[in-house]
């Protein structure tokens, strides 16, 4: 009888574990370390990014629209990706206290999450020759081995930026404007621009919706480096 009781308790515990891991995969059991919560759309440029996460990084991607998003959607995930296509007001600070790495491509989210000071973000458009970024820390894994000025787009397009806090890792900026960072990150445990401690690695990446097809080979190298670093794989 005791052995049967122990087996029953074990089965209950195992079932509870599976339920706890299921959220990020839309109800199916998830294996932590391989799941991505992709907040955005399942079409257009977002589909290009989601496909790269699947095919290049071997990750399982669950796409959730911003209007349906809750913090619980991230349960069991190894990474959260916030597309520039979202309405930032629907994202807010949902993941500020979540101990899961996040990549934000939406500039306004950097203000909502404390990655920059209030209104310390913006975008460059084609009229401003938004094609090139300036690598500031070529030794960091996030630089993907690139140096100097790098064309991350094939043609001029839209590009986001933000003004990071003092403890941020600034990898790339707008050329000739060191205040406007196009790729920057916070290590787990440091203070962000609003003096909040980051519970996991968090990163801002410049990529605007619609520019995914415009990304150069070097642009994708930087994206891949961002995914690897933020998830602890580099």
User: If you consult CATH, what is the topology?
Assistant: Rossmann fold
Strand arrangement across the biggest beta sheet = 2-1-3-4-11-10-9-6-7
Ends distance:
50 Å
Number of domains: 1
How much is the radius of gyration in Å? 19 Å
Low-confidence stretches: 1-23, 25-31
Name the shape in a single word.
globular
In CATH, the homologous superfamily goes by the name: Class I glutamine amidotransferase (GATase) domain
Number of helices: 5
Q: What is the average per-residue confidence, as pLDDT, rounded to a whole number? A: 87
Total beta strands: 11
Class computed from helices, strands and strand pairing: alpha/beta
- CATH domain class name: Alpha Beta
Characteristics of this structure?
single chain, 234 residues, alpha/beta, Rossmann fold, nine-stranded mixed sheet, two-stranded antiparallel ribbon, 5 helices, 11 strands, 24% helix, disordered N terminus
